[in-house]
């Protein structure tokens, strides 16, 4: 996220110098230099070494995937077969079922991420794949009753997370659900309560908890290398959103239009009596139309299968005569669910929750450990936010621009009002916009003596005090620990540490699935209180949901909101919107 333009000289530092500067229990130099360098690129094996869980499980966990759309396919692409075996999938869209096996073929770049089950498990034909994976092309309840399924991954629209997760846990399955945890804080608390009542593992997919780059940033902050943290600036800027895909009916119309154009061009060529030059132009026209039709026909025909889906039968609403003035059909609510308040949570749920999660991780790292030596989970004190439909107008409920400011307690904060220490706070600003993608997405963590910049979950940079042209030199002090030398120096090199790892870096999807599976295999039903838990368990995931959902309230009501401790207590009925959980303690 190049919010501060950097010169080539400022970017020139070796990765070994950066890891030596971290001053964490693992310097990472030998760590990265060994077998994990391959793991960082392949996405296999990195988490088990780094985070300390087993390199595999004796018997891969048999899982079902409920929802095989865009995000479900990302998770399929992140699977390590040494940990999980997909034995069932469920989706109401035939196109998504196809993608689950074959991957997303819309572009070579996307297919590298959404690889499909056949590539992941090296199945040569679809018939072979079907022998291993049961398809439930409709409601997912049959999958939940499948005795072969031990755990489920839920990648459904947000408003369905809580219902599917609760049904799954009551059916005896462990659950990994995509973020947000739930559509409301009350629903999140219900999910957490059922997990405890049924003694099942419930993880939420905030993958930054399993990112090596983010863990390195935590080490840097804890080592004191950027000094006292006082401000974090985060953003997720996009040129345009991808939440308004063309509906199957529109795609059908486009294909028929190309078929008609081809027929017209071929007829014109058949009847042509002009010069060779004119006929050559007609031949070229036929070739161009046929090429465009051939290039898109397969994808169009697959998506057209979704024409048969009756979204109304699955609870999606016809709002043409009321309800939301912006959503006109059940199919539109299904295919564009992120745009509507009833089914999604807007920019804060889909994007902002990731970065406020990261900000909370960084701020927690700036606080001392508790008496047991564990990191304290630091929560925000207050949020102010605005937003609106600044570009797209009335084709959605959710905002296309949001701007938020949070105040968190600093390490020396005192809650007593009116005192000097009450003002010791860390400010976090966040913006998510559509219409201009400058800077991409990432976080800037500002301390008194240095700055950490994390870009696109792929790169990390370490700067000394703002815009200083200095050598990056680590001094060791017996009392203070590792410190950055902030003495100005003529040579510009080594002012920044960039690209901590060579090659693509795992964003944490693989590691979160691996660890969830490892926790299942090491689960202790008779000692649930002490059984291994995923990093983003209910008590952690609910905090991210509270921040995102409370911010949505602040945006819509254009006011400042103070966060209450009771909201974070799964066993307390208080919630930001005043709606108590349905499941009782």
Number of strands: 16
Shape: globular
Helices, by number, come to 19
**Distance between the ends:** 44 Å
Roughly how many Å is the radius of gyration?
26 Å
| Structural class determined from secondary elements | alpha/beta
Strand order of the largest sheet: 13-12-11-7-10-9-8-16
Describe the overall structure.
This protein is of the alpha/beta class and 585 residues long. It is built from 19 helices and 16 strands. The strands form three sheets. It has an eight-stranded mixed beta sheet with strand order 13-12-11-7-10-9-8-16. It has a six-stranded parallel beta sheet with strand order 3-2-1-4-5-6. A hairpin with a 2-residue loop joins strand 11 and strand 12. The longest helix has 29 residues.
Topology:
Blueprint: H1 15-22, H2 29-33, H3 36-42, H4 46-51, E1 61-66, H5 70-77, E2 84-90, H6 94-102, H7 108-113, H8 117-121, H9 126-132, E3 134-136, H10 141-144, E4 151-154, H11 161-170, E5 174-177, H12 185-198, E6 202-204, H13 212-222, E7 229-238, H14 248-271, H15 276-304, H16 330-335, H17 346-365, E8 382-388, E9 401-409, E10 425-434, E11 441-447, E12 450-455, E13 459-464, E14 474-477, E15 481-484, H18 509-521, H19 538-557, E16 561-562
Parallel strand pairs: 1-2, 1-4, 2-3, 4-5, 5-6, 7-10
Antiparallel strand pairs: 7-11, 8-9, 8-16, 9-10, 11-12, 12-13, 14-15
Helix pairs in contact: 11-12, 12-19, 13-17, 14-15, 17-19
